[in-house]
Amino acid sequence: MAPIQASQQTSTPLSPVELSYLHTSLTLTPPIRPDSRSPTQFRPLIAESDILPSTNGSARMIWGDGGECIVGVKAEAEKNSAAPGGSKDWIEINVEVSGQRDDDAFLGMTVAESLLVPGSGVLERLVLGERFHWKVFVDILLLTPPLSHPATLLTLTTYLALRNTFLPKSVSEVAEDPVFDDDWGNALPLYPTDKIPPPITLLVVSVGENIFFDPTREELAVGDIILAVSICGKKVVGVRTLEGGNGGVGRAVIKRVIKESCQVAEEVFGSLNSVEEN
Amino acid sequence: MTSFKRSHADSRVSSELSSKVFLRTSKGKCTKIVRELYLRRDIPCSSKLCARCMADIKGDSYGRTRPFVLSSDPPVNDTIREPHYMVPDTNIFLHCMDVLEHAAITDVIILQTVLDEVRARSLPLYNRLRALVASGEKRFYVFHNEFRSETYVRREPGETINDRNDRAVRRGVQWYHEHLKEAIKDSGKSIAVVMVSNDKGNLEKGKSEGVTCCNIKDYVSGMKNSDELLDMISAALGDENAKAAKGDTLYSEYYSMSKMMTGVKAGTLHQGKFNLSPYNFLEGSIHVPSFDKPLLILGRENINRSVHGDQVVVRVLPKDQWKQPSTKIVEEETLTKNDNPDVSQGAAGEGKPQPTARVVGVIKRNWRYYVGHLDPSSVPAVDGKSQRNVFLIPMDKKIPKIRLRTRQASELFGKRIVVSIDAWERTSRYPSGHFVRSLGEVETKEAETEALLLEWDVQYRPFPKAVLDCLPKEGHEWRVPQNPEDPRLHQRADYRGLLVCSIDPPGCQDIDDALHASRMPNGNYEVGVHIADVTHFVKPNTAMDDEASVRGTTVYLVDKRIDMLPMLLGTDLCSLKPYVERFAFSVIWEITEDGEVVSTKFSKSIIKSREAFSYEQAQIRIDDQSQTDELTQGMRTLLMLSKKLRQKRMDAGALNLASPEVKIETESETSDPIDVKTKKMLETNSLVEEFMLLANISVAGKIYEAFPQTAMLRRHGAPPASKFEELQSQLNATRGLTLRTESSKALADSLDECVDPANSFFNTLVRILATRCMLSAEYFCSGTQAYPEFRHYGLASEIYTHFTSPIRRYADVVAHRQLAAAIEYEALHPTLHSKAKLEGVCGNINNRHRNAQMAGRSSVEYYVGQALRGKVIEEEGYIMRIFSNGLVVFVPRFGVEGLIRVKDLATVEPKSEYDAEKYTLMIEGATGAWWSVGLFDKVVVKVMDDVEAHTGKRKIKMTLVSVKGLKVA
């Protein structure tokens, strides 16, 4: 019953027997993860915010398995254009993975799509008078890709950076070219605490009836299905399956994934927000 | 994990490293700027009392240290009764710079915070402050408090930058106080550090923090010459605390800067330089790129507090408010009496109305010092020491009256005084200003001379020490090195054997040029022009070079010369004086008998001039056939060749233009003017002129070839045909002559044809008028124009530059350096490679050149007035312009023109009819017989002097005696 090794996803150094053992132990009730974490527990990570003084917001995160990511956010005042893209173009995301070609749009898409969730109110905050808006550039640099899937690392770092992003305060009238307050201390947060925060994407893997957050490479290798769940505030705004799953999944499991994701996300938000306070 | 971040916590502990973050908005872009600050503990307080700083002092990378500035015995006054150093805040520098420049104020500490703020607010004030510090006489010291760890102040959250800076100033003062207390505690002396401010809030905070502080007015009141100093405090400062807006607002409010910028960018508003009409003080104009014609700004409300020269933003008024420019002369004096100034004065005449506009804001004030005298009607008869409001009438008619508050009204009355404008409130009809200094009695020579130098922005102060330090150490003892191995002789041709002489106006001391000519074995002539080698002494990027480039030109007044270079160079070391060896820059041509140039050679050289002639002496020597020495022969050759060169130039279409030039005879002792004469032109004048032109053209070609992008050249644009329209129709109507303007050649030829057998002066008159239709020549950097635009219209030369007078023109200095580099004598200094830098230099010298000319003209005008003082002379004149209600008469002997109004012809204004087509005016004489006067007619006028009430200038007044020999009065 050992699942067949997924080809490109994760070439684990484990033998089919070892994989089969892992799969079995993960299907137990309660499941046993190789590093003895509980299903919703994250591996230890290091995060700090506001590391690049000349950006509008920045963060850096190091994953337990060596993945390291830096995100810098820059904002520029830009004239509104009549181009069809409209406000969709106001946030530009660029992901660079060191040692890889930069035309892999997928990773960026994951983040961007979730950032532009309608109703989150971000775009409204980018409006500057009648003729101008902020254009936000999010530059994500993956210094060392993690052994597992990078989506969580990317979105968590981006979340942290965006939560720390401030936009200079405009002091001009709506009809005028924008002029700004010179005090950086007076700059306004892009995501004020009372507004919907930026979204994050969590990776969830299901094995049998069990679901696991922050899966390791080995756990991904034996998962029945791998889901990327985007959460914005208290709501799940997107679920997407990633390649590499080995089987199907029941409807009840998906329901549980969504429910638990919300709970886990809340904890994640809580702990990430405490990073800012330091 | 090692953190990337330099946390604030670290810097709080060590306090040697800090950073500040702020935002800068420019052109709609917003940049976050992060500055790291490395704080130190070894920045000295620079007080001679402080032994600790003296011991601590470290030199720069060369080990040099600066001497301490602040005196050990600083001043005491009645307000601060102990010896003290003064620390003014930013507002004091912005508003009371004139006070601080007064000799009575010494031992001042300028905090870096304040200096930076001054720089951000006003560059001219900043430069003045820098100059004060550099002069060293008044012991001003810049203390870099932002870099000393004890005095560095971090911006608190929510604190405005102004509050933070005020706090930094107070912190600086406090530190100084404690530091000095520590330093002198054993000596038993006492010293205070006083913060001087005008900001009530800042003063109160200072008091509560234990800082000694004082209002500027209180401070100055305690000084000896307090009346004078108090007057120098800007009016704007006085208003700051008592901003109770009394009275009606007369003017509409200015738009905010961002609104103006948005509007200008969007094309709904227009930006330009505001010009006021010299004839009508309620009519301004502004030239903006989007309109061909200048926009008119009519009436006080629309002018909205702009002063001539300001950069303003205007809004174009709706089409139904467009008007024609006024044809009347409207003077402020007459209008204020009737007190009806708010009505816009545009004449609703026929013809096409011009667009009008209203000023909605000022981008940049172009206020300078203004010279004038007090309005007699505003000075009270009773003498008193109390402060009162008076009005100053500026000499420049384009500047409005300025309101001053002064305690010295009765003393200042009848004097030429310098003031500066501080502000123009919405509630005030006139701008308010403050007294700067008095030049002396109106109409005294010294006061008037200084006044006109100030009016034309001529830098006339003595050269600063830094400039004089650049002069050769030997002074007047400097000699051309005799040792052939001397490095200064490297690549320098030895022309000492040539028979060189100079020809200049009599009494000329700064001899720029010398000439020689000799016959060559092949029958051609060798002709040399030798120009003073100024650049041997004035090296780029020295204080002397900077000063010369700022001055731009030597200014010649009737009795005075304001030099561009220090006397030692101008009249001695560079001047190509006779009988001594001098360094020169020589241009040597081989010229055929017919005046064709065969070859040209440039080189640095040594020459020895055999003789310095005046034009007259040279002419006599050439004409005297008994003189057959080689030098005279050489001059005859030069004369012969110059005539051929001139002919060629004329054939090519060069213009022979005339401008009235007069010479003022002065008494040798007092240099008081006695008489006025027109200058004579001799053949020798044009001899020198021809060869100078040839040298300039040759050099222009050479430097352009070597530096196509950055050569310093001079161009003279072809005048647009429309400028000549009026003159053409005048000539046609009155004399049946035609003026062809399609090329300079055609113009030159048709000007030659403009002769009136009955009127020998007619031709010159037409040339004077034609000259006024021309554009003015300008310096430019070759990379900024296309080659066809290089043309010098007047000289009919494809390319031209100025090379021959480096002692008195900065453009020539640049040309010398470029030529030296072009012949590989020396490497070109990097600043002369930079197009932007050269463009700046060109802009400045064009401006200085024009100002120098205007200053020279005003000086002649003043002296002509003085020479005629009390005299009544009948003199011949010519009608130069004709109006429906007056004539402009030009008197060649004095080179002046005067207006004669019809209403002044008789006690009751006679009836008159004006024929605009024929340019004639019919006037009814006293006997009832009509007589007529036409344009260009010869008349006799009585010339007398008169003091102009408005400006206090002595001017010429004329009355008509006869027209074409017929008596009219």
TrEMBL record, chain A:
Cited InterPro entries: ExoRNase_PH_dom2_sf, Exosome_comp_Rrp42_subfam, PNPase/RNase_PH_dom_sf, Ribosomal_Su5_D2-typ_SF
Gene3D superfamilies found in the cross-reference section: GHMP Kinase, N-terminal domain (3.30.230.70)
Biological process according to GO: exonucleolytic trimming to generate mature 3'-end of 5.8S rRNA from tricistronic rRNA transcript (SSU-rRNA, 5.8S rRNA, LSU-rRNA); nuclear mRNA surveillance; nuclear polyadenylation-dependent rRNA catabolic process; rRNA catabolic process; TRAMP-dependent tRNA surveillance pathway; U1 snRNA 3'-end processing; U4 snRNA 3'-end processing; U5 snRNA 3'-end processing
UniProt GO cellular component terms: cytoplasmic exosome (RNase complex); nuclear exosome (RNase complex); nucleolus
Alphabetic keyword roster: Cytoplasm, Exosome
Cell compartment(s), UniProt: Cytoplasm; Nucleus, Nucleolus
Main location per the UniProt record: cytoplasm
UniProt keyword annotation of Lyase present: no
Keyword RNA-binding found: no
Source species, domain of life: Eukaryota
GO molecular function annotations of the record: mRNA 3'-UTR AU-rich region binding
Similarity comment text for this entry: Belongs to the RNase PH family.
Protein name: Ribosomal RNA-processing protein 42
Species this protein is from: Choiromyces venosus 120613-1
Automatic annotation (TrEMBL), chain B:
An example Gene Ontology CC term for this record: cytoplasmic exosome (RNase complex)
SMART domains tied to this protein: PINc, RNB
Biased amino acid composition, Basic and acidic residues: 331-340
InterPro entries: Dis3_CSD2, NA-bd_OB-fold, PIN-like_dom_sf, PIN_dom, RNase_II/R, RNase_II/R_CS, RNR_Ribonuclease, Rrp44_CSD1
Family: Belongs to the RNR ribonuclease family.
SUPFAM superfamilies in alphabetical order: Nucleic acid-binding proteins (SSF50249), PIN domain-like (SSF88723)
Residues of the PIN domain: 84-204
Subcellular location: Cytoplasm; Nucleus, Nucleolus
Superkingdom in the source lineage: Eukaryota
GO biological process, alphabetically ordered: CUT catabolic process; nuclear mRNA surveillance of mRNA 3'-end processing; rRNA catabolic process; rRNA processing
Region: Disordered, residue numbers: 331-355
Keywords: Cytoplasm, Endonuclease, Exonuclease, Exosome, Hydrolase, Nuclease, Nucleus, RNA-binding, rRNA processing
Principal subcellular localisation of the protein: cytoplasm
Sequence ranges assigned to domain RNB in this UniProt record: 492-825
Record has rRNA processing as a keyword: yes
CDD domains: PIN_Rrp44-like (cd09862)
Cofactor(s) of this protein: Mg(2+)
Protein name as catalogued: Chromosome disjunction protein 3
GO MF entry, a single one: endonuclease activity
